[in-house]
Design goal:
Mean pLDDT: 95
Number of helices: 11
Order of helices and strands: EHEEHEHEHEEHEHHEHEEHHEHEE
Number of strands: 14
Helix content: 25-40%
Radius of gyration: 23 Å
Oligomer: single chain
Strand order of the largest sheet: 2-3-1-4-7-6-5
């Protein structure tokens, strides 16, 4: 079975979450960098990482790396990589994305064009061909340039791993599924504890929590680009990974996961998304305004993505909204609250400084994950923790 260096990109600020997931899957981490983890694995690791990792963006097979300060060095470095070990003669190949940070080469379109030409030249020599129809399986390439060091990877995933397949309908500004899952994993919440999202929108936080509680792998119901690369990853590995995931599912788990929204339509969308995810029985969604947020039990968790005020007219409403969040939270005995927001005055308006906060980049937007830590429940209630 072939061995690979695998690269898993993730949201900036959540590298520790992904590193733990990779180690828990049984693989050795080689390097931790801003926004990505490199680890060692075989063909089975490619399929298992795609199916099981909740916090990753995608899984790349590292083809190679080299130093390049000029386009000629980029061309020669790319041509020097063993593309024929991955791409068959009829393969469709292109540089899907180029990212450059603090490098002399910074034009994505030029980088993509030159690397494609270099790949063609290498494969012409390998296959003794003058041209390629490229009518076979797709082999998208992604490249990172950091301080003139070029890292090249084949994208085994295709559509980003945050697309689990269940979210057919969304809110105006939905949180990505892998970001929601990562944030939940940063908390002490477990499936037997209470979780409430008072701004649930299309239901992403409650659904990701329910998937965790039921031990459902996030990628078990979707497809991946590398499923069509039998010469690189044997098909049996994909079947085995999905079978492994299926054996672990426990839909009989008892949960107390709730999602509220002020908009009836969003509540309906959240319910439908939960149904598509197969966890509708594990979540209670209802229309409920923030002013009615309450819960009779102790030691619960508020985990939420409240409005940031991206629009000018929304910003005026934020101080009152976050003040009400603080008041509602204060009325929840022994609860913890975790919220991600780009609103800079969140702590001030909530009326309490967070016990911890963590800077996280949601795309290009800088956000903070504010963590208000409640007391631990008595040991009798937390034997599973």
């Amino acid at each position: 079975m072939r061995k690979f260096e695998l690269i898993a990109p993730c949201h900036f600020g959540l590298e520790a979450v992904l590193k733990k997931e990779i180690i828990d899957l049984g693989y050795d981490v080689l390097q931790v960098e801003d926004g990505r983890i490199t680890f060692f694995g075989d063909e089975e690791a490619v399929s298992r990482a795609n199916v099981f990792l909740r916090s990753a963006e995608r899984i790349l097979i590292k083809v190679g790396s080299f130093h390049a300060e000029t386009f000629e060095e980029l061309f020669q470095g790319t041509k020097g990589l063993a593309w024929e070990e991955y791409i068959p003669r009829d393969g469709k190949f292109w540089v899907a994305k180029a990212a450059s940070v603090k490098s002399k080469l910074f034009s994505p379109s030029d980088i993509q064009s030159i690397m494609k030409k270099a790949m063609v030249e290498r494969l012409k020599e390998s296959y003794h061909a003058g041209w390629f129809e490229e009518n076979g399986a797709s082999f998208p390439v992604r490249v990172f340039l950091m301080k003139d060091e070029v890292t090249v990877g084949l994208d085994t995933t295709g559509e980003s791993l945050h697309k689990r397949g269940y979210r057919k309908l969304t809110a105006k500004a939905p949180i990505a599924e892998n970001l929601a899952a990562s944030l939940i994993m940063l908390t002490p919440w477990r499936g037997d504890r209470i979780l409430v999202d008072p701004f649930c929108g299309s239901g992403t936080f409650p659904i990701e929590a329910a998937l965790m509680a039921a031990n459902m792998a996030p990628g078990m119901n979707r497809s991946f680009t590398a499923e069509n690369w039998p010469e690189v990853v044997a098909r049996r590995n994909w079947y085995d990974a999905v079978d492994e995931a299926g054996d672990m599912v426990d839909l009989d788990v008892v949960t107390d996961i709730q999602g509220y929204d002020i908009d009836d339509k969003m509540v309906s969308i959240a319910r439908e998304n939960a149904r598509l995810a197969g966890v509708e029985k594990l979540i209670h969604f209802q229309r409920r305004p923030l002013s009615q947020l309450s819960h009779p039990k102790k030691y619960g968790f508020l985990i939420t993505n409240p409005p940031y005020g991206e629009r000018l007219e929304e910003k005026a409403a934020l101080p009152a909204l976050y003040k009400e969040i603080g008041e509602r939270f204060a009325g929840l005995d022994s609860w913890s609250m975790y919220l991600i927001t780009a609103y800079e005055n969140a702590e001030r308006d909530i009326g309490r400084k967070a016990d911890k906060n963590r800077k996280i980049y949601n795309g290009m937007m800088k956000t903070y994950f504010y963590q208000y830590l409640g007391p631990r429940p008595p040991k009798r209630q937390k034997q599973e923790d």
